[in-house]
Amino acid sequence: MATGMLSANLDHLGLSQYLRILVEEAFSSWEALTCITEHDLNALGVKLGHRRILQSAVARHGHGESVTGVQYRGNITDSASKESYGRTDAPHPTPEHGNASLKACAPQKRKYIRHAAPDKNVPEKPPSAYGLFSQELRKDLKIQGLGSNQTSNITGKRWRLLSSEVRAAFLSRSRLMKSTYHIRLTEYQQTKECADYQDYLADFHKPPDDTKRLKNNEKSKFSTSAKNEMSSNPGGDGDAFMPPKIAKARVEWLRPTAVSVEHPH
User: Is residue 126 exposed (0-12), middle (13-18) or buried (19+ Cβ within 10 Å)?
Assistant: First the structure.
């Protein structure tokens, strides 16, 4: 049942290709994925974009949200991609369309999203069996000078060539570390530090104060109105924003002077 839920969630997220390796690494249920680390995902060969999708889904599950309730919008199918790539029958923006069509085609600026600070006191999640094997293998002087891609390939090949006894030893160590982690996590959840962090999260996710937002809107409207009045009537209402002496002198400067004209006799 647990593996079935894991398979269904991965299929919904478009990550079904990682099911086998996750089950082999003792991540055989969706609950077990809450213990997976960035190092584990890297060691398992999960692509960076796929890691973010999986981590986001695990985080939503931790907040009680359904994974299948969010529509996956990942990679487009190969057929759809090939059909749309290189097409020339689509109309191009022309001058008569104006700037509206160009603005519609322009990439939209990504909105900044605030993130809460991580809990520094929470117990650190342990690595998986594959992660433990990768950590030990990276100590080997023969592969320390290689790049990350080469190291990952070598690690994966050597892991597949391990005997069942050695692999079982890594799995046993990983399960023991995870069991210890869950005990420490349960103990930590009863501490004042955990309660303080939960209060911090509650304050962080609170909506902004409506009264403060209303005051800021009123200030913005007043500032905009004043600027519009000054720009529309710079010679009249703009004097109200000048010191009295400068305004009086300005009137004298603008007043027309009498010019005497001599008539010929």
Answer: buried
